[in-house]
Amino acid sequence: MLSVILSEVPALPLHTAGKYVAGAYIVLFAIVLIYVAIMAIRLSRIERDLGELLSMSERAGEPPASSAGQHSAEPTAGATGKQDPQPESTLA
Amino acid sequence: MERSSRPFGYGNGLRTLSVVTVIAIAVALGLVFFYAPLEAEQGFLQKIFYVHVPLAIIALCGFVLGGLLAIQHLRTRDPRWDMRSYVVIHMSLIFAVGTLITGSIWAKGSWGHWWVWSEPTLVSFLIIFLLYATYQPLRFAIEDPERQARYASVFAITAGAFVPMNFIAVRLSTAYLHPRVLGSTSNLPGPMALTFLVSLVAMALLFATLCKYELTAKHTRSQLRALRRRLSGELADAPTRPRSAVPAIQHAAAAPARAAGRPVL
Predict the structure, then answer these.
(1) What is the overall mean pLDDT for chain B?
(2) What are phi and psi of B167, to 5 degrees?
(3) Is residue B235 assigned to a domain?
């Protein structure tokens, strides 16, 4: 299938201005890649903060609602930082 | 918990948007390299056009949008509008960096120079970029969050109004090296025009997706901070926030906003 497609598409004249075009598209790719890397760092920070908060709530003797399994049908609801009114009302 | 009763968040629809964006970018790249014909004068080098011009258009539109969102902030005093304005301007600035770099690469290939100071289109875009580069330092310089948001909104509106004025002024100028894309002088053939439009849509989707990611991340962080304060027994409105260019969240208003099912940014 791929070989059929490749045989149909025209050959790219990379020898003339290929390096400039490649450079421009690599810039766009790099911007998105850097952004994804920054988001990954943020996500790991959020994960670490959530872990700290979880241990804080355990120390306070109040198990988080999601781990208590009171009302969550979705196992990831409490661990992904989504809004959940139950912990706020019980932890206030 | 039923899905319908879950409060609205910025993360809603993010997965769908991300998938649509990836598909759009893949289609755009396919069209650019395997469908659009080679331009007679510039040949293969003209392929940069399909990334450079959409980047520039989306960046400029983003700056204007940031101003419009800032107007909403000043009208309603709702910090969520300030956050949206901040994120849109922040993302536009990143796209503007991409525009300048890809433009310089194109200039080097086409004219033999990385930068031409006598070209009004290039210099005017650089002025706009430098203008918005002062947005973050301006925010950081003001400690009081409310004053910071107000001043930043005034800046965003003024600078946002400057963008179309600058665009018109450059169009009225006569000395051009830079090719015209939008206007009477542009006569793109059908396949090129289609490829350009798909690239523009793909870039707009990328912009929207990245903005949504940014808003979701900031929303989640603010929720975590609020939860941390609750757990550590601090007052909800205690001034514990370190100096930052990022818009402040009014935590006192967060509870009713959450109760109403709205995001608090």
Answers:
(1) 83
(2) -60, -45
(3) no
